[in-house]
Specification:
Strand order of the largest sheet: 1-2-3-4-5-6-7-8
CATH architecture: Beta Barrel
Structural class: mainly beta
Strand content: 35-45%
CATH topology: Lipocalin
Radius of gyration: 16 Å
Order of helices and strands: HEEEEEEEE
Largest sheet: 8 strands, antiparallel, barrel
CATH class: Mainly Beta
Number of helices: 1
Distance between the termini: 53 Å
Length: 143
């Protein structure tokens, strides 16, 4: 039993160490800021704050989640930034879709930012076939 607990602690610390090493984006990266999304035919909105230190704060419905992210410095030749996100904390409540996200959940998405810098979409692949959005930039005091 003691060996099992030691192994669990070792794996957990390795996961947390990997999360802590996520490289933050450049200080002028266009993803940095606060963004809002309201799903069609819904009164529930989501707010995403992408911080310059490579962390996010997300509120969606009753859910509040924190994560670490990495995003490519430049878009690909077809206009997508690769985006890796790992949930580090979640309050265990339902989001706008009625789902509960678990800490440790990792996803890779592809972000296409509008030339105005005021909205973006997030896609499953470097394609417009399976995306959600648009996320719209929310101006907050001091921005």
């Amino acid at each position: 039993m003691r060996i099992f607990l030691s192994l669990v602690m070792l794996i957990s610390s390795m996961l947390l160490a990997h999360i802590a090493w996520a490289a933050p984006p450049a200080p002028n990266h266009p993803i940095i800021g606060v963004w809002e999304f309201t799903p069609p035919d819904s009164k529930c909105s989501e707010t995403y704050e992408f911080k310059a230190d490579g962390t996010t704060l997300v509120s969606s419905g009753e859910e509040i989640a924190e994560s670490v992210y990495e995003i490519s410095a430049q878009p690909s030749p077809i206009g997508f930034y690769k985006f890796d996100d790992t949930i580090t904390r979640d309050n265990g409540k339902k989001d706008c879709a009625g789902e509960i996200t678990q800490a440790g959940h990792k996803v890779t998405s592809f972000v296409q930012i509008h030339p105005s810098g005021e909205m973006f979409i997030m896609c499953e692949a470097e394609s417009l076939d399976a995306c959600f959005g648009p996320m719209k930039r929310k101006r907050v005091a001091g921005q």
